[in-house]
Amino acid sequence: MRDKLSALLRKTAPKGTEIGLNVPEDEKFGHYSTNVVFSLAKKSGRPPMDVARELAEKVKLAGFLKRLEVAPPGFINFWLEERAFQDELREILKKKNSYGRGKRKKDKIQVEFVSANPTGPLTLANGRGGFLGDVLSNTLEWNGFQVEREYYVNDTGNQIITLGKSAAAALGLIPAEESFYKGDYVRRWASVNAAFVRRNKEKFLKIGQKAAAEFMRNIKTTLTKKAGIKFNRFTSEEKQIHKKGLTKKAMEIFRKKGLVYKKEGAEWLKTTTFGDDKDRVVITSDGFPTYFLADAGHYLETKSRGFSRKINILGPDHFGYVARIQAVAKLVGLAESTIIITQLVRMLDKGERLKMSKRKGTFITFNELINEVPPDVARFFFLTIAPETHLDFDLDLAKEKSQKNPVYYAQYAYVRALSILKKAKISAAKADLRLLSSREDISLLRMLAAFPEIIEDAASDYGVQRLTRYARELARIFHDFYEKERIIGVPKNLAAARLALVKATVQVFENLFKILGISAPQKM
RNA sequence: GUCCCCAUAGUUCAACGGAUAGAACGGCUCCCUUCUAAGGAGUAGAUCGGGGUUCGAUUCCUCGUGGGGACGCCA
């Protein structure tokens, strides 16, 4: 609906005008409202009200417009014909489980998320990134993009060696060091695999890789089986990047561009050219490629596999990494690169913040959270909050009050709607939709019609919290409708029309739940 | 020390630079012979403090205050 209106305005307003359309809170400002006039007025130096009146004159009342109004200081508000909403209802019933999908687009987008080092269990921030990546990928897919969901596995290098050493130290074979991983999970693994560790003493990479492989299996189970987060590809740093020579290729590109220099025996990349605060080492003085160079190889791989866009979701500890990654993205020729840094998740325990550290092993794992809180609840809770906001998670509250969690509110609305469909003995097939004209009917229709717009918005600004918020709003409007309007027991024609409306509501809920990755319960 | 994120109702969070700042939980008052009350109706309650940019600022810039985090030839 918005697209029709915005097309109409685009035809009328001067070329190149950005058409911004809002949905006002209060219907007295219309179904849609625009503020384009302000920018036009500024350009021409004329009073906004004059420009608004002139533009409003030109926008001939199109078939789907009921009326429009110029409101000070220069808004134009539009009211659509009820017929437009009724047509949209037909559209929902026709498109069914593809209602809300955007046009197919050629762009291939890679979404990389979680990518936690397999040196231990997942943190809550990893889980947050997991849900975000999962739903963002779904959203982009619905909007018509081709999406690959990737987990980049750092399965070699120093942190794996450190893991191997940590296991050896846990058995008392070597003295412990500050940098070692000290969690219970290391001790547990080491004692179960004590024979292997002893047999391979000094081969720390080998020990570390065996441990990492096992931790990786646990990570996969938690993410995919328990939390329902989907991945298409687990990319191995060792196998897919180093062994395929991509680090070398990346190095060649950098050399050709004259951006590499030697200093103190190491080789440095001039990332400062791209806004980084200092240059970065790519080859150490011992002659080894750094993790950063591997990442460059990884970005090169993404580019050469045909992706025009990459979205990388990182945890808060990687903030210092953004500038150099963006430098690399540019160097390998990726058309668009976005990095989303999710902020910390803090756990509250009886009102107190728990300090969490992976190295020290004092933290609540994502796995523990998923075991205690139903996945639907955890997912919805994490996704309601914008990623750049710090999140306080009160575990007691989540468990205790889980019945009151907004996810149940939405699911309950769905169940209520389903229940009507089951009990109604009439058909909605030949309903006369013109009968849907009460305030509650129209509010619900409007909310349903907003669904494609929400997806479009979320896909363009990656604001996934729009979807959970929409779920709550749709539920609220439906509950309200349910209280005030009856379906079963009203005159047949009206009942049929309302039934069509309920059917459409069920459909939109199902599509929405699918994108959000939460279940659509048949009863509660 | 340098850099990043955050600051909105008692609490946890929303709000492309737009009109009267929205929800949820928690308070208080009502509503179940009616399609599932895990629901509905009502009520009280907020933009950290200075400056600036403009028709308009919770949003942008700047200074400050308070919280969280990152800064290794680790990843």
What level of helicity do the residues show? Answer: 40-55%
Described by strand count, sense and barrel closure, the largest sheet is: 5 strands, parallel
End-to-end separation: 34 Å
Instruction: Write down the overall mean pLDDT.
Output: 88
State the shape.
globular
- CATH fold category name of one domain: Isoleucyl-tRNA Synthetase, Domain 1
Assign the CATH architecture of one domain: Orthogonal Bundle
- The low-confidence runs, each spanning 5 or more residues with pLDDT under 50, are 358-362
Structure description:
It catalyses: tRNA(Arg) + L-arginine + ATP = L-arginyl-tRNA(Arg) + AMP + diphosphate. It is found in: Cytoplasm. It is an enzyme of class 6 (ligase). Its main location: cytoplasm. The chain is an alpha/beta fold and 524 residues long. Helices cover 50% and strands 13% of the residues. It has helices at 2-12, 36-44, 48-58, 82-95, 124-142, 158-170, 184-192, 194-199, 204-226, 237-242, 246-256, 291-304, 322-331, 366-372, 375-383, 395-400, 406-423, 439-449, 451-461, 465-484, 492-516, and strands at residues 21-22, 32-34, 65-71, 75-80, 108-112, 146-153, 233-236, 260-263, 266-269, 280-283, 309-314, 336-341, 345-349, 352-353, 391-394. A five-stranded parallel β-sheet has the order 7-6-5-11-12, with helices on both faces. β5, α5 (124-142) and β6 (146-153) form a beta-alpha-beta unit. α2 (36-44) crosses α3 (48-58), α4 crosses α18 and α9 packs parallel to α14 (366-372). The structure holds one RNA strand of 75 nucleotides.
